[in-house]
Structure formats: C-alpha cells, structure tokens
Records
---
Amino acid sequence: MKKLVLLFIFLIGNLLIYAQEKSITDLLIECYEEYLELNKQEKSKLNTSDCPPEPADFYDFFKTTFIDFASLREKENVKTFSFSDNLCSPLTRKLEVTSNYGMRNGRKHYGTDFRLKVGDTVCSVFCGKVRVAKWDEGYGFVVVVRHYNMSETVYAHLDKILVSVDQEVKAGQIVGLGGNTGKNSTGPHLHFELRYKGFPINPVINKKLLTLIPVY
C-alpha cells in the first residue's frame, strides 16, 4: 500500500511539472506568433475623437509571467520575468505629473506627461524590443518599445534618441534624453504612453505608475 501511495505521489508530481512546462511552451508559441503577426500589420491610426475602452484583462495579464525576445530567438534556456520584479521608472527623478491621461481641451490625451529637464535620462520601464525610433511632427523625437506581453510604451518629445529599431533593451536601460521637441510639446516634459494590443491604457493607478512606483 505504501508503495502505491508513493507511486501515486510521484505520478502526480511529474504531471504537475509537465503541465507547468507545457504552459510555458504554449506561452512561448503564443508570444512568438502574436509578435510576428503584429509586425506584419500596419500601424493602426486612431481618430482623435475616439476613446477606446481599456481592455478588461490588461492589468491581470500584465502581472503574469512573460518571455523575453532574446531567449525566444535563441530557442534555448527560455527566460521569463515577472511584472513586480522588472518594472522601472521612466525617469531617474521623482515622477511628477504635469498633464494627466484622459480628456484635455476637448480631446483625448492618450499619455501621461511627467516633468523633467532637457537632457534628463529617459529609460524603458520594461525589457523589450524597440519598434520605433524616429522624428515625428507631433511627438518630436519618439521611441516606442514593444514588451513581451504585446504591450508597448511610448517615450515622446525627446531631445535625443539613444536606441535603434529592433534593438533589445533591458528594464531601466536608457532609450533617450528628455527634451521639448515636436509641435505638440508645450515645454520640457516626457509624454509617456502605455498601450496594450493597440489600446491606450492609463499608466497611473491610485497615484502609482502601474501600481508600484509613486507618482506625485
């Protein structure tokens, strides 16, 4: 009887290990396929009068385990990371909001503006891959980083871009220097956006950036 119990425990343990490995593999495949599909699509353009709803599953999905592009490419020793262990502030200074996400002057403001001085370092909040690094008439010098759960962060009105398209960046890595560029800029600040599957998301919840970093 004791041997049967031990055998049963052994089989259940192996089944749980297999289920976990299968879950990671499925996530790897899903992430890779979705990344390829998104790269085939043209950048979606939202009408300024539209106000897309925030995806109900975003915050739960953002806190799960993700896979990084570098290990995905290598196909071996797939690395994972968690929301709580890898979130970094986009600025090395205290985050002070100068303009909130939401309606502003009758139009939707899809980002949150943070105070800075020209030349301040601007960092990627998560590890990911640079999708956009260019000059834009409205955004000025802008960087867009795609992260491993198919969310993206936007860093606009930069004085200088310090990364290039398809470059892999780590959480906290400098992507540019803060500035006051682009026709939509009214002074030195960082226009920061968070998007998930194309939908804009308010990155500040209860006076914290993504529930962890204090915002004033």
---
Amino acid sequence: MQTTSKRKTQTGETAASVYKSRFSDCTNIIGKIAKALEAHKGKQMADSRNWGFAGDLDEVRKQLAYALASLGDRSAVDQHGLKY
C-alpha cells in the first residue's frame, strides 16, 4: 500500500524512517544469503554427486526471482518461466 501522507504512526515512525530500517534489514539479509550460498557451495563440492544441493538452489533461485520482481524487475521470473 503506497501513500504520500506525511503522517506518523502511533510510535512516531515516518515512512522514511521505516523505509530506512527495512532497507538496512534487506541489505543485511542479502549479505547473509551470500555467505550461506558460499557455505552451501562448499557442502556441494564435498558431495558433488548429491542432487539435493541442486534442488535447494532451484527453490532459492525462485524466491530470489520473486524478490526481484517485487522490486519491479520481472526479468528473472520471465527468464525461468515462473508465474508471478
């Protein structure tokens, strides 16, 4: 829900302050995802015949494509034939 109102919440938060906090949360999560992907890659390299790791990444790829689409870029969902 978008609004251009300058109102504050009951706790005194503004749209700008909530955005700043959520932006920070998102960038922190992206950093954690990058680290988790590297760790996952190491596990796959140690057990390279295990198809489970490829399955894990299929789900991760879908979720990342949907996240990108939520930000206005449908390229990944379109590229992988996902419904959004």
---
Amino acid sequence: MNKKGFTLLEILLSLTLITFVVLITISLINPGQQVADVNNVQRQADILNIYTAINQYREANNGILPAGINTTAINICQAGCTESSSQIDISLELNPYLRLNTLPIDPLQTGSILTGYTVYVDSQSGRVVVSAPLAENNIIINTIE
C-alpha cells in the first residue's frame, strides 16, 4: 500500500525552518529601533514647530521673546501648568503660531505636565534653541544640530 502524506519528521523540520526564517526577519527589522526612529522624526517636527512659533511671536512683538525664555535651558510645560524655575508655560503666547494651536508633546512624555521639550537662548549667537532631551538611540535633537 502506497500512502501519500508527510511524516512527523518532515513536518517538524519544516516548522523549524519557518521559525528560523521568521526569527531572522524580525531581528533584521528590529521593531524597537523602528519605533524609536519614528519617535525621533516626530520630535524633529515638534521642535521645528515650536522654534518657528517662537520666531513668529518674536517677529510680531518687536523682537521680544515669550516671558521666561533666557540663556538657561528650561522645560516647556503644557498649557495651564504652574510656572517655576524649572518650567515655563508659553502656550498662550505660541498657540496662535503653532500648527495645531497647541504645544506638541514628546512621544515618551506621559503622565506629566511637561511637554518633553526645552528652550533657551544661545548666549553667543542670540539664537533660540529648542531641544528634545528624550530623544532615543543616543541622538541629539535640537535646532542647532
């Protein structure tokens, strides 16, 4: 009698080969790296949005920056936060100039009143610098780099 079909050994070898190919593919794709890269692209867009809004505010107000922006890096907090020596709320000043009329929030900044971005004026050039200190993969994201 001639039976057609697969033996248990053939099925196990096929499954092992498929598993091996899937594991290699996943390791090459590296989903964690992909998510971090997407977050960093979002951060770059966010700091450019904030930087542009600050400069538009400055232009509309005869060169004056929003209160609290000086040569010391300070955290930008979300609308309505209590300002302190470590954080400023510039949402009222910047909302008219921001893309969505609200300050962007870093993808990793959750459960906080902070946006995950900082701002200061470079003392040598007088240029406003917006930074993303939560950038992933050892990348520096700011408006100077």
---
Amino acid sequence: MAATLARAAVPVVHQLLTLVLAAALAAVPAPALAQAAIPAVPPAAVTPEQDARPPLAGRALVTALRGGGYVLYLRHTSTDFGENDERMTDYADCKNQRNLTDAGRAEARDIGAALRELQIPIGEVLASPFCRTMETGRLVFGRATVSLAVRGGPARPETPDRYADLRRLLSTPVAGRTNTAIASHGNPFFGVTGGPYLAEGEIAVIDPQGNGKFRIVARIPKNGWAALIAATRG
C-alpha cells in the first residue's frame, strides 16, 4: 500500500518542482539571464574605457613611464602560426614550439630601441618559459628571468586560480623609479582582464593599485613607438 502511494506521489512532486522552477526563472529579468552567460571583466582590472580618467597617451605617457612605478605587460612579438606547441617535451624544446619569425625578432629589437631612446627605466624582467616569450624578453629588454607566474596556456574550469600569481604581480606596487616588464602571451592577459586580447607585440601599461587591484592606463601597439618618440620632440 505504501509503495503504491509513493509511486502515485512522484508525478505530483515532479509537477510541483517544475512549477517552482518556472516561477523562479520568471522572477529574474530577461537581461539578467542574458548577462549571466557573458563573462564579465574581473573586478580587479579597470580598463581605460571603464575609468573616468582618460588613458595616458603621447608625452604624458612617456613622462609617466620615465617616473617608473608601472608594469609593462608585453605579448610576444610575431610568431609562425604554422607551428604549434603540441609535441613539445619541455619548455627548452624550441623546435617543437611556435617560435618568433624573423619579422618578430626585428619587431622586438625595434621596441627595445624605442624604450632606450625614450629613456624608460626597466627593472625586473619576467618571462613565460616558452621559447618565443624568453626570446622576446631578451631582444626587447636585454634580459629575462623565467617566471611560472606569467606562463601561458588557457585557464580552465578545473584551474580557476591559474592566473592568481599574475594578478598579484599586476596589482603589487613597483618599488623604486623603474618599471617591471613581463613578456608573456595573450591568454594570461585575457584571463585576468576579461579582454580584449593583446595583439602580438602589443604592450599594456598597468598601474598597480595594491590589494589585488590594478588599472590598465594605456596600450601601445608594436607600431606605436614612433609616435611616442615624435611626441617627445614636439
């Protein structure tokens, strides 16, 4: 008898749960449901577009960088997309990675020359251990120290804190009158800011705010250095 009543109750309970769920969804505004599926920019990062203050540019940007205190996040320069990292055995296995092209190496040297001409002081230089990022760091800044905190690769649901160390780096004030440089990839930057992706050879200028927060105050494309040099001469 009890078993018969239990079987009879199942459809009723199922119907009640369906009605409750429908009512809950109906109470949520449609825009909120749509927005829930769109990854928001992490609150730790504030882009120039979100900040009331205008982004730094031209002479003002150069003056700020000469004073130090910023983090220069550089995505490696141009690479050969006919190559990939699928068969690499370790980070030193350059022949089985995507590497810089000759054009990418020239771009890196040009960026380094511009930094020196503009007299922008560079202190610590950290690089993802991949060959293309280490080579970019050395060609641009003259040196590079391997840092797993800035390594590449996409964040996945099972590793939600993959870029926690990078967030700390970007939010920690830079000591002295120098700038910290990071040579890394597009994925880590996207992972901590929500996008958009940096182009190859593009630098994001980060103003660390402390307590896990930072502002993106400028983005310098690989072909943007001539304009900055011209701005200091005008």
